[in-house]
Amino acid sequence: MFLSAFTRSRPLAAVVVLSIVALTGSFAEAQSGPGANAQQVADAVARTTALPANGAYQPNWNSLQSHGVPDWFYKAKFGIMMHWGVYSAPAKHNEWDEKYMYGANSGIRQWYIDNFGRSDTFGYLDFLDPTKTAKPGSAASAYYKPFTANNWNPDQWAALFKQSGAKVVSMTAQHHDAFALWDSQVTPYNTKLMGPKRDLVGDLSKAVRAQGLKFGVQDHGIENYTFLKQFTITDRANSDIDRPDRQPYYMPSAKQSPDPLTDFLVNWYERNVELINKYQPDLMWYDNGMNDRLLDPLKTKLSAYYYNQSQALGKEVIISGKGDDADKSFLQGAIHDHEKMGRAPTSLRATPWLVHDTLTNGNSWCYNMIDTPGVRGNAGTYIRTISHVTSLNGVFLLNIGPGPDGIIPQAQQDILTGIGDWMADNGEAIYDTKPWKQFAEGSTSSGTTASTAFRFTLKGNDLYAIMMGWPTSGSTATILSLGTGDHVGSTILGVELLGHGPLTFTRDDTKLLINLPPSQPSGLNHVFSFKITGAGLVPEPSTLAILGLGAAALMRRRNR
Fold it and tell me: What is the pTM (predicted TM-score) of this model?
């Protein structure tokens, strides 16, 4: 998506991200871009807002590849993203339900009819109407709330995110439904005019930044042009799709225009320009519909616009998007954002990368009360993920699914506060760390709970060994990677269990043996971090270069 902006010590390679899956995580539900041709893209570029005068970045890959990711992102290691929008109100299947309720899935369409009525009386946009209700006695009537955010307190959200230990928060600006969660002058279908009647993006950006966190936006909207068009709409005559006040929203492809697709591209671009100008996001994240190389001129222009505007404001920003290692649309040297841990790197990378996963259940990334309610895992699940990803030189974004009234379900809050409690003791082993010469000992599964499994991070001259579970028997932790035989001439001066205190240890040719407390210390849970101080444990630059982890790559300084 756009370009990868992660390397700092060397020029950044341009990238267009091709993902074979959409945010549902299902291969069967892969989403595509608008299908524009080269002339339509060129026409759109000519009609869009011009670049700032005298900007350092030009709309081409050679210019953009000099941009690097700021230190704040590399140091952050952990952030929050979310799926929150009109689709949060029905809470049936997932964030793709707009297309399903109009016929892309007959079973889901029938559920909507049974619970809310035919779409000519209760269409997708009616989930923003506080006067509309679910059918009496229906399954949805037990929980249904419109998307009005009537109980939303952005300051409380921001305080929770701060408490979780997250350093960056990314908000859905628009999903595939292209309903804008900000005060927009580019589209009338926005939360300032409908539903919540407030600027959700603006309000959260202020609250998040007041907590000292970075703020980003997610744009999934490039897929909107084909979101309904590519599926057969069932019983269109008895739907609200062709109502004059709604057709421009549901079916941009039906616009009475010489070229509605070019108009759509211009509108998409201007929405992003509006987000950049109004909110100055620190991070802009794009979904996989931007994979088409024919869109390069539009992407490079918008990227240059964003980077030039941010540079003029003295802000260090990044662009990101998702993809997989098998993608052939990545240019050499680019870094991916991976959707879900199952597609994340499994070996140490010389440059930082991003992965996002969700605590929501099943096939949904949003609030869900019918198909897959509840949460996946617990705080320990994601603490292990954070430890694993950090050891591999990655950054982890955890997705949440708030309710339509603006309340984050308690089970989701509990996971976030649990992560924060752990970070309060162990954050030293996570934030602002670099990878060691090896990322793991023992099981390399991100979800392992074995006490023989460790993840390693490095900060200055201190090495952190993160034990993925407490021993079920015995009172020692054995780290085979830290014997003197593997580190001739090295010295270990001290071992500290973070959140507890110093521990005694012995060391021989084959191992470091740490004497643990007789029982798991009260208040320490899930994963356990040892801070190991000494000399000769930090790899020499020549060793790092062989591993592809040269000092320049590890330092990640911006290439300006």
Answer: 0.92
CA separation, residue 248 to residues 36, 184, 217, 404 (Å) = 19, 16, 24, 24
Q: Among candidates 72, 54, 69, 74, which has minimal Cα distance to 559?
A: 69
- Report pLDDT digits (tens) over 160-183: 999 999 999 999 999 999 999 999
Which CATH homologous superfamily contains domain 434-555? Golgi alpha-mannosidase II (2.60.40.1180)
Q: What does the alpha-carbon distance between residue 353 and residue 389 come to, in Å, rounded to a whole number?
A: 9
φ, ψ for residue 264, nearest 5 deg:
-65, -45
Q: Does residue 476 sit in helix, strand or coil?
A: strand
**CATH fold match for the domains 27-86+146-429 and 434-555:** no
CATH topology of domain 27-86+146-429: TIM Barrel (3.20.20)
User: How far is 375 from 361, CA to CA, in rounded Å?
Assistant: 5
Locate the domains of the chain by residue range. 27-86+146-429, 434-555
Spatial separation of the C-alpha atoms in residues 161 and 260, rounded to whole Å: 40
Q: What is the pLDDT of residues 323-336, one digit of tens each?
A: 665 554 444 323 57
- Residue (of 6, 172, 153) closest to 76 by Cα position: 6
Specify the length of the chain in residues: 560
Closest CA to 507 of 469, 473, 479, 474: 479
Report the candidate in 433, 451, 429 with the shortest Cα–Cα distance to residue 442: 451
**Coil, strand, or helix at residue 29?**
helix
